[in-house]
Amino acid sequence: RLVESGGGLVQAGGSLTLSCTASDEVFDGYTIGWFRQAPGKAREGVSCISSAGNNIMYADFVKGRFTTSRDSAENAVYLRLNSLKPEDTAVYYCAAGPSADRNMCSMTQGFDDWGQGTQVAVSS
Fold it and tell me: pLDDT digits over 107-116, tens only?
């Protein structure tokens, strides 16, 4: 019920915008998280956005390079990736989890629905 798109191959320093779309019953009232998994590494949290869209969290390694936004009218969440580095190469996933508080999000909460992932590859 979640579908990611927007991945691709870019050179270091380049940008991509990833999209995550969902059905109404998944999107409404759910926290959306972005995660990534590089080959041979564990999955890690990248960002999350609250169901109300007013709280956004980022992993430390993002360091101002990525921006998460939410468009409720389109049932979509976006992850803008700027200043990409080769170490950002990974499959990026979005996931939806029930919100205990519409105004808060956490990358460590439970996420029930996952997309199929979109590949981001950054060349040096």
Answer: 999 999 999 9
